[in-house]
Design goal:
Strand content of chain A: 15-25%
CATH topology of the largest domain in chain B: Rossmann fold
Number of strands of chain B: 16
Radius of gyration of chain B: 19 Å
Structural class of chain A: alpha/beta
Number of helices of chain A: 19
Order of helices and strands of chain B: EEHEEEHEEHHEHEHEEHEHEEEHEHH
Number of domains of chain B: 3
CATH class of the largest domain in chain B: Alpha Beta
Strand order of the largest sheet of chain B: 6-1-2-5-4-3-7
Distance between the termini of chain B: 37 Å
Oligomer: heterodimer
Low-confidence stretches of chain B: 283-293
Largest sheet of chain B: 7 strands, antiparallel
């Protein structure tokens, strides 16, 4: 075995998987996991832990995997994370734990993400159940939103003995894990539902179909329903569009809509009522993880797919693994290209998209080189569907209905990074509602900090 | 689960149900809407609120069969349940939020078309409860498709009914009644609220623009989540793109791009048609209907 190289992980063949919604990556088996775990140097000063937003004791759990004591490994992870099967699949390990790994200096870093996933999957298959708090504190906390921030915050508070209720606006809990990230990256029944069930087993109640700010306000929760603290983890919000001609044509969707129809409403399945206009030739505008998810979903629904992105490959914000998978499956990239108009027929359906070539100029405020238009370089791509994946702006539902809740210039809720405290006593917030669209693991970190903040606040009361 | 306490067929393909949904009943206002989902496999269907009883914790909805999920909903009986019933969504009608004295000074004309009679009803009822007599025009294709007539009569000032075929009330479109009231009977109105099929709202707005009568319409486009997340319900109002779910559903009718809204309504027609055919014909349907590819 070459200690400089990761044990390769088995995946579905690109050609095959491009036509189904089964998970792309099979994960390690016991033997592979133990072999990969043996590559870990078990550093005393573990740099990987510093790269983990929720500070999982990485060398410790990997040691247990190497020893074959998977239940002990699961216990080590459970101390820090309520959603290991999710994180093992969707965390950007290459820039976090694995990015810090000493093994990575000379060769490839230890495959920490795949090991975490292995432990989580093993736990599920062997009926491992997290332990609920022994003593109840008799204090009620409300959590708004059941995405990664809310689930983490609720789980941590329940472990401390609080009575936690999560309010979810949609009919299914999970937030972006349910409506956003596709089945082939994050299986819903096995992975997402199980991890949500585990949070419930800690004593957390989830009430779906409740829109905080409309069905009931935060003020009402605190004044009338007896909640002593609230954590807002309501997520990213409203999809952005470009403002170019033709954008309201039939066949132009936000990535949020396209993915929600497919993931939450299961439009890809014949036996569900919700339709999806899948498209035969689809252009996805944008270069983030959501864009890759939309592109690969469209591919699986039978389309030829182009990703249109205004900067170059080096600036693509999506994870390298996602870009690699998308290319393998046959997604075509039009880089340094920006849409200028969506063309339609007389009935209002998309027939094509005029795009303009770009070149990179001086770096902008994000540090990335600014794309500059090349005059006279316009050309038309023939497509029947355009999916806009340009990010989101915050949903005003909560901030506009909660007294004294401060928002910033971008309308995101203002909250302390280390404990989630907002301008309103007893109200905490974290995740995309505070930072704008980011990653699952950063939302989990915010949920964790929010739980800590709420515990400190209620302990001092 | 949200229990159905009453289920009535109002007309061919049009149904009314009272549903136990205490959180919604406690906070909803005229102008807002709910989303219902029959079961695991159903669609999320946005429906305007027809009535509510805060004491009983019930909300009344009215719907028409248009696709597979609404067809299955029509089979539900008293005692059955919806898996999901979420709301209220959208914004209340302007008059709910405005100074009551100002509202009382205005003369309101409500124009309802078809199933649009249901969302107009709670607005007129609100008017009556606040001592305002509002004139109401209800239009239907034919007598058998007229709904909520006696309920509306109880809360309206003057009620004018018209049918396209003249089978009941006046004969003709709602626009003809508006023109008659304003031009022949010299009635004066300060504001018109028109809710019904998009094509009706379009023609009402063309007329009221000509008459100089400010008009509010309620848009009910394709939606998924109803909370601003998906953007499926976007429409053009003036020179701005708005989301009906969080910015509406009521807008200044003189600024709405109705032609675009009508085109956008067609988006899922084929796909919904397909789901419908699967439901009615099951595995025996193998194309040839004009809807299948």
């Amino acid at each position: 075995m070459d200690m400089l190289k990761k044990i390769p992980v088995r995946e579905q063949e690109p050609k095959v998987r491009a036509a189904n919604f089964e998970e792309v990556c099979y994960g390690y088996n016991e033997e592979e996991a133990r072999a990969e775990a043996s590559r870990c140097l078990k550093c005393k000063n573990a740099r990987c832990m510093g790269g983990c937003p929720v500070s999982i004791h990485i060398p410790e759990f990997i040691k247990k995997v190497e020893e074959g004591d998977f239940e002990a490994a699961a216990n080590v992870i459970a101390e820090a994370s309520a959603l290991p099967a999710v994180c093992g699949r969707v965390c950007p390990q290459e820039t976090q734990c694995e990015g810090q790994c000493i093994r990575g200096i000379k060769g490839e870093p230890v495959s920490i993400g795949k090991l975490e996933r292995f432990v989580a999957d093993w736990s599920r298959e062997h009926g491992f159940v997290p332990k609920a708090a022994k003593e109840k504190l008799g204090k009620k906390v409300a959590v708004v939103g059941s995405g990664p921030a809310g689930l983490t915050c609720a789980g941590d508070l329940a472990k401390l003995g609080y009575d936690v209720t999560i309010f979810e606006a949609l009919h299914e809990p999970g937030g972006v894990l349910t409506y956003g990230i596709p089945e082939f990256r994050l299986p819903k029944e096995t992975v997402v539902r199980t991890e949500i069930e585990n949070v419930k087993k800690l004593g957390v109640t989830i009430e779906t179909d409740v829109i905080i700010g409309k069905s009931v306000t935060i003020d009402e929760l605190m004044e009338e329903e007896g909640y002593e603290a609230v954590f807002i983890g309501s997520g990213a919000g409203l999809p952005k569009f470009m403002g170019i001609p033709g954008e309201n044509a039939n066949g132009v969707f936000s990535a949020n809509e396209y993915l929600t129809r497919s993931n939450l409403m299961k439009a890809f399945r014949e036996d569900y009522d919700t339709p999806i206009a899948a498209g035969k030739k689809v252009a996805v505008v944008g270069g983030g993880n959501v864009a890759m998810d939309a592109a690969r979903t469209a591919l699986r629904l039978g389309a030829t797919v182009y990703v249109v992105y205004r900067r170059s490959e080096a600036e693509l914000p999506a994870r390298v693994e996602e870009i690699h998978h998308a290319k393998e499956e046959g997604v075509e990239f039009h880089l340094l290209t920006n849409p200028v108009e969506i063309l339609t027929d007389d009935k209002g359906w998309v027939t094509g998209m005029t795009v303009r070539k770009m070149e990179l100029g001086e770096p902008d405020e994000s540090g990335r080189r600014r794309p500059v238009e090349i005059p006279g370089s316009d050309y038309t791509i023939e497509v029947d569907t355009v999916i806009m994946s340009l990010g989101t702006s915050p949903n005003p539902l909560i901030s506009s209905t909660t007294k004294g809740l401060e928002v910033n210039r971008r309308k995101c809720i203002v909250a302390e990074a280390n404990n989630g405290q907002t301008s309103r006593p007893g109200v905490f917030a974290g995740g995309d509602a505070v930072t704008g669209a980011a990653t699952v693991i950063l939302a989990m970190e915010a949920g964790k900090n929010g739980a800590k903040g709420i515990h400190e606040y209620l302990s001092g009361k | 689960m949200y229990k159905i306490l009453k289920a009535v067929k109002l007309a061919e393909k049009i149904f009314l149900m009272d549903v136990k949904a205490p959180r919604v009943a406690r906070s909803c206002q005229p102008g807002e809407f709910v989303i219902v989902k029959i079961d695991e496999r159903g669609e999320r269907i946005p429906l305007t609120i027809c009535d509510f009883d805060r004491q009983e914790g019930t909300v009344s909805i009215v719907f028409q069969i248009v696709g597979a999920s609404t067809k299955r909903m029509a089979d539900l009986k008293e005692g059955d349940s919806f898996q999901d019933f979420v709301g209220p969504l959208g914004n209340p009608s302007d008059f709910v939020k405005e100074d009551l004295e100002q509202v009382k000074k205005r003369r309101y004309l409500f124009v309802a078309g078809g199933v649009g009679t249901a969302p107009v009803y709670p607005q007129v009822k609100w008017m009556r409860e606040h001592g305002i007599e509002a004139d109401v025009i209800v239009g239907a294709k034919t007598k058998d498709l007229l709904i909520l007539e006696s309920e509306m009569k109880e809360v309206a000032g003057n009620l004018y009914i018209t049918t396209d075929d003249g089978s009941y009330g006046r004969k003709g479109m709602v626009t003809e009644v508006i023109r008659d009231l304003v031009e022949n009977q010299k009635k004066q109105y300060d504001i018109c609220v028109a809710i019904g099929p998009v094509i009706m709202m379009k023609f009402v707005c063309l007329l009221t623009k000509e008459l100089g009568l400010p008009t509010i319409v309620s848009m009910n486009p394709v939606m998924v989540d109803g909370t601003g997340m998906c953007g499926a319900c976007r429409l053009t109002v003036g020179d701005q793109v708005k989301f009906a779910c969080v910015d509406g559903p009521e807008f200044d009718g003189h600024l709405v791009d109705f032609d675009e809204a009508m085109k956008r309504q067609q988006i899922y027609k084929t796909e919904e048609g397909r789901a419908m055919l699967r439901l009615t014909e099951g595995d025996t349907h193998h194309g040839g209907c004009g809807l299948c590819g």
